[in-house]
Amino acid sequence: MQLRRLAPLVPLLALLAAPACALAAGAFDAEQATRAWLDTIPHEAKLRSDAYYEGGYWLQLVDLVFALLVAWLLLRGGLSARLRNNAERLTRYKPLQSMAYAAQYLILVTLLSLPLNAYEGYWREHAYNMSNQTLADWALDQLKGLFVSILFMAPAVAAVWGAIRRAPKTWWLWGSAIATGFLMIGMVLGPVFIAPLFNDYKPLSDPKVRSEILSLARANQVPATEVYEFDASRQTKRISANVSGFMGTERISLNDNLLKRTSPAEIRAVMGHEIGHYALNHVYKHLLTFTVLTIIGFALARWAMERLIARHGGTWGLRGSGDVAALPVLVAIFAVLGFIGTPITNTVIRTAEFEADLYGLNAAREPDGFAQAAVRLAEYRKMEPAAWEEFLFYDHPSGRTRIRTAMQWKAEHLADQPAGR
Ligand SMILES: [Zn+2]
Asked: What top-tier enzyme class does this entry carry (predicted)?
């Protein structure tokens, strides 16, 4: 059965299930209430989202193998050296050569990855009934993505290779600073210039929802004067919301699927979570953590890159680490480090998400709205993973953890819930 057809039934079933269970127990039992919420998901839908999510584990491995294969193809086949020669014919100025190389590299890698990306981002999404996009729209988004990545990556590559040439011993430190700098620029520009390339953002139109959210924001010292809605339904059926921006461009955005498909209690619960990210300064904390991880990554990358180039540089037509044609080597090393580091980055993010969940429960006081939203997220996330799965693969608490947390909160705050909730 298709998820989309079941979706309207879920809230009804949930409304019936939660109070029934509470009555049956005589008192509110968090464990039973959690089970009741989880059981609102039809068996077939659960199998489907489990398969979708577990497939994603394997895709991470496939992506890594593919990235290594592309690097090997570029280096071993001498393509990378040829791209560098093209760039050198174009200009004598080193930074421009690096940028020209990077632009060619990105175009070539995008073309090589197109079949895999189309499978992951288009066919697989359609197979699981998650996508609203035509192939042409999807391709246009890819083209925009390529444009943005050239705009950011070409100068970043030029800066990193400038550092490698000027500071052969300490370039990993400069490289980390450059990567962090570009990340920060991306964060500042993201909501203002990049996100609007893919979706329409406009102030939330529903005055009731808008004023509720802004008052929730004020109550939690979030200096938001505007909340945005965007047409995520152009691409996907998923519900989501996010906090984005940095140093003055911060904003909370709700996707239209969330606004169309969910109840006011759910929207309040989701907003409480997003406000939690804001109030708990997660952007700054993540930036700090990722800067440390970047420094470690660049230190390891320098070590590995020097060894690889000393051994194979000649066969690959590279003139040393300072040769921008060595970019595929660095990219391959970061692909491996990123893969190995996934449980670490997932745990950093998941921990913050759990904090935001608790903050949101305290702020919005909508445990059932929160549980309902968690049930909806089960359309694209495995609801009840094993502990090791949650640790390795989850960048958010699992649905079961989230519902359990909400029901525990509800059990301990039943007395202060207004009547009728
Ligand atoms: Zn979050």
From this structure: hydrolase
Digit-coded pLDDT (tens) for 381-407: 899 999 999 999 999 999 999 999 999
* Whether the predicted pLDDT of 97 surpasses 90: yes
Please compute, for residue 406, the number of CA atoms within 13 A of its CA located in the half-sphere on the CB side: 36
Query: Which of 233, 232, 276, 235 has the alpha carbon at shortest distance from 252?
Result: 276
Q: Summarize the confidence of residues 167-173 as an average pLDDT.
A: 94
Average predicted confidence (pLDDT) for the chain: 88
Domain chopping of the chain, boundaries:
3-201+279-414
**pLDDT tens string 205-237:** 888 888 888 888 889 888 777 788 999 998 988
Whole-Å CA distances, 10 to 16, 17, 19, 38, 97:
10, 10, 15, 11, 57
Between the CA of 15 and the centroid of ligand 1 the distance, in Å, is: 25
Distance in Å, CA 344 to ligand 1 centroid: 17
**Six-digit token string for 100:** 């020209």
- Taking alpha carbons only, the member of 206, 189, 196, 266 closest to residue 230 is 196
Binding residues for Zn(2+): 273, 277, 353
200 is an active site residue: no
